[in-house]
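Service request form, structural biology core

Requester: graduate student, group of Dr. S.
Request type: structure prediction, single chain
Budget code: on file
Notes: please return the result as structure tokens.

Sequence provided:
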Amino acid sequence: MNIRISPLQAHLALLLAMVIWGSSFTLLKITIDVMPAMQVMFFRMLAGSVLLLFFVRWWLRGVNYQKGDWKWLLLMAAFEPCLYFLFEGLALKYTSASQAGLITSILPLMIAAGAWLFLKEQIKKRQWFGFMLAVAGVIWMSAYSEVSSSAPNPALGNFLEVLAMMSAVGYTLLVKKLTSRYNPVFLTAFQTFVGAVFFLPLALSQPLPEQVEPQVIWGIVYLGVVVSLGAYGLYNIALSRLSATVTGAYINLIPVFALLVALLVLKDTINLQQWLAVLVIFTGIGISQYQQPVRGAETPLPPAPHA
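Core staff response, request fulfilled:
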């Protein structure tokens, strides 16, 4: 099964994925404050896995497995969700949701460098300028953020979030490689099942809380279904149509949405300096996306195996 979408639809899918991911920092911060991080990660993977079982015949359709691909598939899942969620879950114990979201600003440059090095994707100076402008906006926004009691050790937490970003780079490059033979829904399902198995022993190593509020349960369901399946599914679908460099540029929007959700849910405040920084981030994204290079800008989907 191959999902055919237009470039515009791919960009819209990416935008929606960024909104969902931006909201995940606040939801994850809320849940791990009342439940051990590894248990939250396991239950979110479990929720996604249970839902996927109802559609197993759909996402297995058209899979073109080739000998030796198991190594790439497992490595993809090891990068994300395993290592990524491991580092991010620990990071949010020490830093705030907004600061963790801001750290994602380094990911586009890391993905672009990796795509240039391993995938031979062309990157124009205009794109680099747009990336740097967006990163400058994120740094500006971070400089004017207020440290709260929810970030007891932000330096450690931010470092762990950087490790999560490094895992995300490996994941993105491997997904780009694998989408030529596997549909995005299959890749999303595979990583979800592997994530559930990976986090199970880590979850069992800690005692379960005696009582869990209903909103925490719904938060875990949201993380497992909407974030782990919805956002990753949208991202993988877009990555099958667009270059890794282009998709990576959108990640600059995550800290913006993360900050906005924290404003609405956690009642954080955004001052004038931060609003100006948000404008700079959007400007950088616009510059990096304007008039895409002809070569290496997009990767068309392979022909569908069925009529």
